[in-house]
Structure prediction request, 589 residues.
Amino acid sequence: MKRTLAPSLALALAALLAATGSASAQEKWTFALNWFPVGDHAAYWVALDKGYYKAKELDVVLENSKGSGDTIAKVDTGRADAGLADAAVLIASKARGTTVKTIGMVFDKTPLNIFSLKSKPLAKPKDLEGATLGSPPGDAQRQMFPAFAKANGIDASKVKWVNIEPAAKIAAVVEKRMDGVSDYTTGLPLYEKAGGKGKIQMMPWADFGFDLYSMSIMASEKTMKEKPKQLKAFLEASYMGWRDVMADPKAAMVIFKKRVPEIDVDALTENMMMGLELMKTKQYAEGGIGSIDDKRMCASVDLVNTYMGLPKKVECKDVYTKEFYTKVAMPTASN
Amino acid sequence: MKIKALIRQYTPTVALFIALLGLWQIAVSIGGIREYLLPAPASVWNSLWNPEVAWAQHLWATTWEIVGAFFLAAIVGVLLGVAIAWSPLLANALVPFLVFVNTLPKVAVAPLFLIWLGYGIFPNMLMGALIGFFPVVINTAVGLSQVEQDMLDLGRVFNAPKWKIFAKIRIPNALPYILSALKITATAAVVGAIVGEFVASQQGLGYVIVTTQSSMNTGLAFAALIWISVVGLVLYGLVVLLAHLWAPWAEGID
Prediction:
């Protein structure tokens, strides 16, 4: 054992020296994706495939995770350098002592939504009274429901929530085990795949006066302090990936499929297109892809503070930073 | 004298337990491990009695599921075991199928239960039973068939019918085997109930774990884990006690 350890240690040292010594060395960089492959992951595969990361001396590994809680734990403990996480979950995690911060957004408009069947539709907030909704306890829809209910003048106590595993959401609705489930609007194609085209009812919260930041890119304090240059480079390259996805979604899917052969291209293409709908906003057109609006971020923090029952109040300035953001403009010829 | 022996037997257990608790506390307070990753023993202790969680209700739901799963597995397991030992035809038909069912990863089957049966206490009982019934089948069948030839010959000498040989010779012989399998079933029932609650639930200790983990309230998740192990240990203890009372001649047949 010892005999094998010594040379590898020497090698590691040599590698370390080389990394600090020469500018062309590639630095290993782990990015924690929030879930198993979904459409909005295409951008990172595109950036990887086109060598955007490599050009910035980053040897990026994209790693699947199980939700925002998992990615935050990975990034906070240094098992990943950066990751995707729902902003609401991140804000709440700050109250429990994590050091992660949002450094850029993915979706600009909120994808929060409730799916049901057209045969028994939950089309407007009032329909939710008396309904049974399935939702993993961490979903923002569930945590934020009191706020949504208040804004729409419905009685939150008349909604019955059931804990379900994320993977069981689609079946729960399609098989009528529950009246509805909480899920991002972008999930529609997967629900339609199971329940039939035109059979699925959506209730996008954005349509009912609710705004909360959701999917974001985040990093830990340690990464921000020790690898600021790399973090900035990673973020810019990632948004370049997004830019290419916006410019040519079809080509992006070809790359995605090449890199992750298990994916269902049809479902994930639509899934990705719906994600893009949440990004074609004035904010991104003017500020660049993934740019953060201070006022909306602080409003999201207020909502989380008010409704998520945290052990202590979270300050807006502690949850995000624009320090690492580089503007990447939206493609001009975008649809 | 007896007390002294008991003390001698359990001193290492208690010492190890206390040492681990001490190490845990030291690691957390000196190592600066954050609360959401590993809460200190003291904070877990407080969480055990945290009034924000309706512990009684969740304990009740999970205990029901576990006990139900246990009895379901025991009854179905023994019946299947008897069927297999009774008739070679049934054995040929059933055994391959049961082996197949047993090899299915139950965690992967659990979401299907949600589709077929919905959610609630009963589907979770079934899940526990599904995980725990197999050892009972096998041990019952083995116990029923591995009877001393002398005993069977004795029965035959007296012209005893097949059912009587079963009742008077085979079943008493199988009892220690069955009781030993039930110890495994007791722990499997706990696993099943929690697997079920993880997939879909409105109450129960598994529900508490999923709910608290999602908000990174790890202290409460630990507390729920401890309550689960309390339920599991009590059930296990009862089975051991039952074995002791019912088949004292067969101690340590595991």
